[in-house]
């Protein structure tokens, strides 16, 4: 059996294990306890598999967050709302008038959809989110919620659709990398800068004890004195630094 076949089998085994874990949680816990059960069980799994994923250089804290993220995704598909403990930083940014719209950007770190759920539940719903090349997806799920936000698939017209939304003064959600660690595309920032839309970064971090901290930061790049490409480079660097800070925190805990 070749390496590719082994990897496919391993991926299927991981997915089956996660589905069994979700079936156990749903069978033995009421929805209000789903998150607590998921947090404790995924933490136990990570401790039992100490040393796994070392090739990806993931700390136990980061592996816990990734596994919890996968379980929350599967639980959300049950279409039953359940509470997730959250604390937020930077939500006051959304009280400001934004006539040119907001480009709400992040990277593929675990649990970032909890940040979008926090916005929606506190009265600030983005107009749409980019859902990659998955043309069959019409809405983006928010972990633990029955609410969704409309999805736009990437394609030839995606920038036109994003432009229309920003010109309405509304908010677009975009994950600007393919996976965490991959290069960040500057196209989102170029469009925002061309339209003078505000750029806000959003992130999430699993804290010891299970609370998820969601945070929002407005880009500090002064675009007026920079050419477009230089502004984009600095904005990419800003987001990378925020994401690295969270990853470093997982290594510390």
Structural commentary:
The protein has two domains: 3-76, no CATH class; 86-252, no CATH class. The mean pLDDT is 91. The protein is built from seven helices and eight strands. With 253 residues, the chain is an alpha/beta fold. Strand 7 and strand 8 form a beta hairpin. The chain has an eight-stranded mixed β-sheet, sandwiched between helices. 35% of the residues are buried.
Radius of gyration: 19 Å
SS elements, strand count: 8
Poorly predicted spans: none
Number of helices: 7
Identify the overall geometry: globular
* Helix content bin: 40-55%
Order of helices and strands: HHHEEHEEEHEHEEH
Number of domains: 2
Biggest beta-sheet profile: 8 strands, mixed
Instruction: Tell me the strand order in the biggest sheet.
Output: 1-8-7-2-6-3-5-4
Mean pLDDT: 91
Our estimate of the beta-strand percent is 15-25%
Alpha-beta content class:
alpha/beta
Instruction: Compute the separation of the termini in Å.
Output: 39 Å
Question: Which key features would you list for this structure?
Answer:
253 residues, 7 helices, 2 domains, alpha/beta, 8-stranded mixed beta sheet, 8 strands, 44% helix
């Amino acid at each position: 059996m070749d390496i590719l076949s082994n990897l496919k089998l391993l991926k299927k085994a991981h997915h089956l294990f996660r589905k069994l874990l979700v079936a156990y949680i749903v069978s033995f816990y009421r929805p209000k306890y789903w998150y607590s059960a998921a947090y404790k069980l995924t933490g136990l799994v990570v401790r039992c598999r100490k040393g796994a994923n070392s090739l990806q250089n993931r700390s136990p804290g980061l592996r816990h967050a990734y596994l919890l993220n996968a379980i929350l995704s599967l639980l959300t598909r049950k279409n039953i709302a359940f509470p997730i403990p959250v604390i937020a930083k930077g939500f006051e940014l959304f009280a400001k008038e934004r006539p040119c719209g907001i480009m709400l950007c992040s990277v593929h770190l675990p649990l970032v959809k909890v940040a979008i759920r926090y916005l929606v539940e506190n009265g600030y719903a983005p107009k749409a989110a980019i859902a990659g090349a998955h043309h069959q997806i019409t809405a983006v799920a928010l972990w633990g919620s029955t609410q969704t936000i409309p999805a736009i698939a990437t394609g030839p017209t995606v920038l036109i659709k994003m432009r229309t939304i920003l010109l309405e003064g509304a908010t677009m959600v975009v994950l600007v990398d393919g996976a965490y660690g991959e290069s960040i595309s500057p196209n989102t920032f170029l469009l925002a800068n061309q339209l003078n839309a505000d750029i806000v970064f959003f992130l999430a971090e699993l804290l010891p004890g299970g609370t998820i901290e969601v945070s929002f930061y407005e880009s500090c790049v002064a675009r007026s004195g920079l050419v477009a490409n230089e502004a984009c480079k600095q904005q990419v660097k800003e987001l990378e630094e925020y994401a690295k800070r969270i990853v470093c925190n997982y290594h510390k805990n």
